[in-house]
Fold each of these.
Amino acid sequence: MSISTTQPESAPISPLRQRMLEDMAMRGLRSHTQHDYIRIVKSFATFLGRSPDTATVEDVRRFQVYQRESGMQPQSINNSVSGLRFFFTVALNRPDLSLRLVLVRFPRKLPDVLSVEEVGRLLEAAPSLKYKAALGTAYGAGLRVSEVAALKIDDIDSTRMLIRIEQGKGRKDRNAMLSPQLLALLRLWWREGKRRNVMLPHGWLFPGRSCTEPVSTRQINRAVHEAAEVAGIRKHVSPHTLRHSFATHLLEQDVDIRVIQVLLGHSKLDTTALYARVATKTIRAVTSPLERLQLLMEGGSPGG
């Protein structure tokens, strides 16, 4: 069996690839995850120069050494570990190979966060009203870029002031917050979209180049970078920066971290707790024990 990289698109799918696609579909993996896993296995097959189902323990070790020596980033190596683990464990039933894969440890950097003023400048500099509304949704509701792109008009519940997120990360449905200001911005865009005949009944909230397709995450990324440049923001900004900023600003407003966890759709509180490390207003509000010591010294020792 083979997952060949030279196989023409019109050629029949190899039995091995078909098996892996079926296994991924049975387990409900998203289409982009399936695409990534197939790409990773193809890369492994190219390195081997033969079908990946003939791999040995030494082949797995050599591949990971090659990845590291070629300068591949730790996160990319770890992504390939996920794809190969699925391939070895599920498609091949070779858990012995999966056990030989090594995850790369790397320091977790604090995310860049924009100030409220910087978010305002970014939104004002958006290249169009559509992208201003899309970026406003990412910040105002704390959504992932993929969740913004996948929104439909019917997902906006103005009666309950909620945004319905269907099949977010981890294939989970959840409700996100809809503030009055975000609703007003979305209504502005909806009217503009109707005027331009790009809003279909029950269609995408942010249509792409064709109104029958949603805007791509790549288009939203380009819009963010363009807006940041126009706004003169020097930080490294991406759509996820707006989600980081949403969580951090809520934490600085003393919103309970468990509420923020629910709004972000995090399964683990530890993930949400990362924002406590960048909430500078919260950090500044804490009184250092050194200050208390100074007050105690100036007032004399207790009972003295």
Amino acid sequence: MLKIAIAADHAGYEYKEILKKHLEKQYEIKDFGTYSTDSVDYPDFVHPAASSVENGENEFGILICGSGEGVSITANKHQKIRCALCWMPEIAALARQHNDANMIALPARFIAKELAIEIVEQFLTTSFEGGRHQNRVDKIAFC
């Protein structure tokens, strides 16, 4: 069963709970928080979730905040993370096909709950195309 990390800040909490409930039917979900709508600092939840994907404990990660930007920027500080900010299913598909994204960031304040589910489903069911894209992905990490 595919293992997925999920995390959110207070703005993304409601979406996290909806996505978690939807995805638990067919995936193993590890919830890294937050666990309420009380104001929090998103890096406190994103770093553990991203680390779990980076070290192979989870294959993919889903992050949610108001704009999706903060969680995406934070996750992408991890060397082996390729987190894509997605607001439509087509962007999620391209993030997987061309960039081999292993985490997705959603902007809860700008997309409907139903659309969030569609975007995540597209992300999780799309494969990396490899080929010409592999060479580009290999050049992303900078150390």
Amino acid sequence: MKNWWRRFKKWLALPNSDKWLLLQATAAILLIKLGLKLLSFKTFKTVYAHCIANPAAKNYPTSYIQQLVWSISAVSSALPLSILCLPQALAVKFFLRGDDCFVLKIGVANPVQQFSAHAWVEKEGKIVIGDVPNVSYVPLWDWN
């Protein structure tokens, strides 16, 4: 119970803009997670593509991108659900939908012991969210 009280006290200390971003991130993560669970991947892709289609062109400041990544990561670790890399990457891509430079990538790694897949978002070759140190993933698909 102390853990929740500590989180609540941290929440109260946050500026209103951070609280709002955390609420938006929570809603986006939960809707994406629900969509991935309940819909076929083909249907989810269609719905998601519709949600991010035709945004006004934007250039996001670095501070906003950092706050967004912080909020998505914080929400993903605080929720009692398993929020893995794909919902996190999809949420970041959703919030940054006005800038076509952000690319969601899905790749695979085949270490000697175990096959693994991963999703991340890049801008101009730099990873925005989903960096995994010491593992090299080969991109299979770019989701624009």
